[in-house]
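User: Teach me something about this protein's shape.
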Amino acid sequence: MATNITITKSASKLPGWLWFVALWCFGVGSAMSLGFAFKLLMNATLFAVK
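Assistant: First, the predicted structure itself:
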């Protein structure tokens, strides 16, 4: 009693370079937004004291 195992590729699977580009864009975007939030926090607290 042997069972046939078929492996099918899903259509939603992205190629490796596209994963790299997507993760790189996500990393750059999150780093820039974190830096912007840090800049706003520093302007609101540290540089407001004169």
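Now, about its shape. The mean pLDDT is 84. The first helix runs from residue 16 to 45. If you'd like, I can walk through any region in more detail.
User: That's plenty for now, thanks!
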